[in-house]
Write a structure and sequence with these properties.
The chain has 263 residues and is α+β, with helices and mostly antiparallel strands. 20% of the residues lie in helices and 21% in strands.
């Protein structure tokens, strides 16, 4: 049952999204900017594992893929959100560490974020959390084959939502230099941004619950604690709806409240 407080937060998010959309539309008309939502072409070398698109297609995934390889359609590209709205003004201490506390219906997840390495990303999360943007949102996607992530941060809950602005990529070398296969290892416990290509991050992010190889195209901006890792691992153990390797988690996850504070 939806409580009045949950309904109030939902209405506030919807109002905020409408305001962002109207501003973005007005600026796009005046500046004649058009965001082209095209397919992201990814060239894979042998053994390269890549992450699935943020927009769920409903297509069945091949569950026989090895842990170190995925198909070319499994790319970490997020559906672009309107970029006419400028990103939030920088308001954080760029030399500080911040903590994002995610209170979910299945347990708490504590994310530590380094503003020195990813100031635009941390600033955006602080801005959105202060507006209760993430409160009541679902973690809409789980992958259990080839790559191992739980994806959250979409107010629509279907992989197509965003804040109405984009933030730049940051800290792309933070996990080391890419190997001969063009990938780096995103260790379990890593938190990184989904995107639709260079400099198109919005609000969607993914939690890595098992070491995963990806091209170094996704901003790693934090890590989550052992208790949070256990929470995500339990969600992964329950699997994906319908028994696939990629889709909505069988064990539904809702972010009831998200707060960001300076450590």
């Amino acid at each position: 049952m939806v409580t009045s407080d949950q309904r109030r937060r939902q209405l506030a998010r919807e109002k905020y999204a409408r305001q962002q959309q109207r501003r973005a539309e007005a600026q796009r008309k005046s500046r004649r900017n058009t965001v082209i939502a095209s397919s992201l072409a990814v060239v894979l070398a042998a053994g390269l594992a890549v992450w699935a698109s943020v927009a769920l297609t409903g297509a069945d995934k091949d569950d026989t893929k090895s842990d170190s390889a995925a198909s070319a359609s499994d790319t970490p590209s997020a559906e672009p959100t309107p970029s006419g709205q400028p990103e939030p003004a920088m308001s954080i201490d760029q030399k500080a560490t911040y903590t994002m506390a995610l209170k979910t219906n299945v347990g708490d997840i504590k994310v530590t974020m380094d503003a020195a390495k990813a100031p635009h990303t941390v600033n955006s999360f602080k801005h959105l959390a202060d507006k209760k943007y993430f409160d009541g949102t679902k973690c809409h996607r789980l992958t259990t084959s080839g790559i191992f992530v739980l994806q959250c941060g979409d107010p629509k809950g279907d992989g197509t939502g965003g804040p109405g602005y984009s933030i730049p990529d940051e800290n792309l070398n933070g996990l080391g230099k890419a190997g001969q296969d063009g990938s780096v290892t995103f260790p379990k416990g890593t938190v990184a941004m989904a995107n639709a290509g260079p400099n198109t991050g919005g609000s969607q992010f993914f939690l890595v619950y098992k070491d995963t190889k990806l091209p170094p195209n996704y901003t790693p901006f934090g890590t989550f604690d052992a208790d949070g890792l256990k929470v995500v691992e339990d969600v992964a153990k329950a699997g994906v709806q319908g028994g696939a390797g990629d889709g909505a988690p069988q064990k539904a996850v809702t972010i009831e409240k998200a707060t960001v504070a300076k450590k």
